[in-house]
């Protein structure tokens, strides 16, 4: 009887989750789908001129799309090497006080709220401006750096999990063939764990793309246009959604917020679906 009640409780929990997810996604699709079109992305600017940056875009979200892609690429470029390397080291390093401290640091960093990471970036700029770099300002590079610190724990944990899931027989066979520990990791273990590591990278990209608290304190603004460089401010889809939904002056601006939300939802869905497909292969 208890087992049946537990199964019924699990089934109801799954049903409630699916219902909530369907309501949220359905609401965004119903509100955002009618706005999809060239005017949503480019406004009154000709598409080719907008893509090439030959004309400013005042009523479209194309600069926010490019800004989001730029800041995500910057974040993953800064985080991928230290994140994966940390995961590898934590997997194969011998037990020590330093290893325990690093494991605790990764856990704490993973639990830091994103708004605190954004506040750290803002404080860093203020410190630089008052000391060695008076012209320092919030920028695309600062946002990428703070997002990188936010996703390094994800990369580290997924890499470590992927390596720990490999059978012990792989290491034993590699050792029997005379491989050194470095050769085992380079030619046997890392290639076998590649799918899990790549899935972690994709999930980290999705995590960086959807964050708003960090970028709104470190460089994202409204109507900045296409990113002019890593030291310039920029637009991003999460901030655009926040800005238009909280300060809209007309129904058109509110519709743009729904269109941007649907665009961001499609972007993250593609990333997470790709990660899921890689994990199943």
Automatic annotation (TrEMBL):
UniProt cross-references to CDD domains, sorted A to Z: TM_PBP2
Stretches assigned to the ABC transmembrane type-1 domain: 65-273
BP terms from Gene Ontology: transmembrane transport
Record's subcellular location: Cell membrane
Entry keyword set: Membrane, Transmembrane, Transmembrane helix, Transport
Gene3D superfamilies documented for this protein: MetI-like
Primary localization class, coarse: membrane
Identification of the protein by name: ABC transporter permease subunit
Organism, as annotated: Shewanella maritima
